User: What shape does this take?
Amino acid sequence: GAISSLQRQMEIQESELRRIRSEKEILQKQLREREVQLQAVSDKFCSMTEEQRQEEIVVMMEEENRNLHQVVTEQESQLAEQGKLINELQGIINQLRAEVVNTRLHLLEQKQAQKEIQSQADALQHKALQTRVALEQITCKFERYRNKIIQATFSVEGSQDPVGELSDNEVLEAMQKIINERAEFQHILKSKGSK
Assistant: This one.
């Protein structure tokens, strides 16, 4: 097993070595081609006269200037686009700030309105409590007054005690009957000349 493992590793290493040798050959070939190209340029440059060399330099400088000019133009165009984008973003930021201010004002107004509503609700609750207390007092007084009326009405001589609980109408009818009887009795007495 160890030998098989070593053989596999050796095969892998040999394969890697072949790949590296192949790459080395390709690189050496490319290097020879570059050397040939460089030598050709060097020979051409050496064979030029001083005037040709200057012309070549001028051409190269003009080409470089054109490239630089193109780069500058592109940069200016990008700068203009960025400036436009910055202006748009600044406008959006200003709009958002205005919306934030309006929202804060709206929230303050809502808080103020909520405080006023709460104050009104507290006042109404207090008034409802006072009304409930007053109603309880009036109900209590009314019950006492009603009991007194019932007691006075049915304590008259000849009247019968009520059966069960009386309604307000029944109390009023009994009271009205007594008032009518007394008025009639008083009328009879006056007609007879009695005080």
The chain has three helices and no strands. The CA atoms of residues 45 and 56 lie 9 Å apart. The radius of gyration is 60 Å.
